[in-house]
Design goal:
The complex is a heterodimer. Chain A is α+β, with helices and mostly antiparallel strands. Chain A has 2 domains: 1-43, no CATH class; 49-195, no CATH class. Chain A is 53% helix and 12% strand. Chain A is built from 7 helices and 7 strands, in the order ββββαββααααβαα. In chain A, the strands form 3 sheets. In chain A, strands 6-5-7 form a 3-stranded antiparallel beta sheet. In chain A, strands 1-2 form a two-stranded antiparallel sheet. A two-stranded antiparallel ribbon of chain A has the order 3-4. The longest helix of chain A is centred in the middle third of the chain and has 31 residues, at 98-128. Chain A is elongated. Chain B is mostly helical. Chain B has 2 domains: 1-36; 39-195, Butyryl-CoA Dehydrogenase, subunit A, domain 3 (Up-down Bundle), CATH 1.20.140. Chain B is 58% helix and 9% strand. In chain B, the strands form 2 sheets. Chain B has a 3-stranded antiparallel beta sheet with strand order 4-3-5. In chain B, helix 3 (91-121) packs parallel to helix 6 (170-188). The two termini of chain B are 19 Å apart. The chains are: A alpha+beta, B mainly alpha.
Chain lengths: 207, 207
């Protein structure tokens, strides 16, 4: 890479974590860049990632919406069965002030992940089709980036595993289809976030 | 010695990495506010930190789970619940819960306070080491929500008809809020401050 000077401001990037500055004018296509100072990944391009990310996000959006109404886990004891969905799990917190917690839980495991998929699809569809970005696309992508840590699907799945261990002595517990859909969702989100190169998307939104 | 955007009289966007001359107010590409070093962010960090600690106290005093059987109600706190699990011999899960709900939150409070103080008053630890602490806090903070999700699943699944009935206690709400406030504290912190040499240290080097 060239030395960064203020004259080449258009091709400079600054690491958001430590402010180290780089000139990316002579970057080869497909080259990955990590910050030398703090090792934060700056540029992580992949060929044809756009369409792949849209496909992953659409699949994830359908998965999360369907899983919401399917049996998540069921418990059997003395011939009695109680089935629960994700919605029931969140609504377990519904007396008085606990309703706040119900909404927070639903937001963290369903609402915000779903919103992120929708925002990603909205941002990338015109870019992949070589059209002008849709109105508010940069705001949509910025929001999606900000919401990233608040999407807690993987934590919920591990939480379910812990709950199972707590219950195994009390009753027979069976995992329903929604649980496996959530496991698939965790994998989809991980792959999608790994192949997303923020720098490439921001540059595409600018053009 | 690495060059930072600030050294060149430039300011980098913390969302999309684009670089502008110092004094530019907003990023033209993504709309983010541009600040070279957000010293005021420390006020936000401390405000969220205090809120997090305040919520953490009731989270440990009040019951997390209320188990109702035919004969009696058992209220268990976070630590009480882990001790009970250990007494069944479920040491693995007891340790997971203790680490996720007690050890990690406590270490997180110390780590965030240390980072904020180190930026204001200088640090004995080097910038790369402090940056690692920052990354670990950012990465691990979300995982504390696991206990709240476990409570949600248990409460929705275990109802009177089956074994007993499990209900969430006030600590679940307090704990969730504590985790969210602490995440906000960590996210408010401008990690670029870690990498600035403090004026005092610069004087020391010059002598």
């Amino acid at each position: 890479m060239k030395e960064a000077t203020p004259e080449n401001i258009d091709t400079l990037i600054a690491c958001p974590k430590c402010d180290a500055i780089y000139d990316v004018a002579q970057l080869e296509t497909g080259e990955r860049v990590r910050c030398d100072v703090c090792h934060h990944p700056l540029i992580t391009p992949r060929r044809n990632a756009g369409l792949f990310i849209i496909a992953m996000s659409s699949a994830a959006l359908i998965l999360v919406m369907t899983a919401l109404f399917m049996p998540f886990i069921s418990i059997h004891r003395f011939g009695l069965t109680k089935q629960t969905t994700i919605l029931d799990a969140a609504l377990a917190f519904s007396d008085g002030p606990m309703i706040v917690l119900a909404l927070v839980t639903l937001g963290l495991i369903v609402g915000l992940p779903a919103l992120r998929f929708a925002l990603t699809i909205y941002t990338l569809t015109p870019i992949v089709a070589d059209r002008r970005p849709w109105p508010g696309a940069s705001r949509a992508f910025r929001l999606s980036e900000k919401l990233k840590p608040w999407s807690m699907v993987e934590i919920f799945v591990i939480g379910t595993a812990v709950a199972l261990v707590k219950l195994t002595d009390l009753a027979r517990v069976e995992l329903g289809p929604a649980f496996w859909m959530f496991v698939a969702l965790v994998i989809l989100i991980f792959v999608k976030d790994t192949v997303t190169c923020r720098w490439t998307i921001w540059r595409a939104l600018e053009e | 010695m690495t060059v930072t955007a600030k050294d060149l009289g430039l300011v980098g966007c913390r969302t999309c990495e684009k670089v502008y001359p110092m004094g530019t107010k907003r990023c033209a590409r993504c709309g983010e506010k541009l600040i070279s070093r957000d010293h005021r962010s420390l006020h936000k960090v401390w405000a969220w930190w205090i809120a997090g600690i305040l919520a953490y106290i009731p989270a440990n005093i009040y019951p997390m789970l209320i188990t109702t059987t035919l004969f009696r109600d058992v209220e268990s706190t976070i630590i009480g619940g882990a001790v009970e699990l250990a007494s069944y011999g479920a040491w693995g899960v007891a340790i997971v819960i203790l680490v996720a709900s007690v050890l990690i939150p406590a270490l997180k409070f110390f780590a965030i306070a240390y980072l904020a103080l180190s930026v204001s008053y200088g640090a004995s630890m080097s910038a790369p080491h402090r940056h690692v602490i920052y990354e670990v806090v950012e990465f691990i903070g979300r995982w504390s929500m696991i206990d709240v999700f476990v409570v949600a699943i248990l409460s929705s699944l275990v109802q009177v008809s089956v074994v007993a009935s499990i209900n969430p206690g006030m600590a679940a709400l307090a704990f969730a809020l504590s985790v969210i406030f602490t995440m906000m504290a960590a996210r408010s912190f401008d990690s670029r401050l870690i990498w600035d040499t403090l004026p005092k240290e610069k004087d020391a080097l010059a002598q």
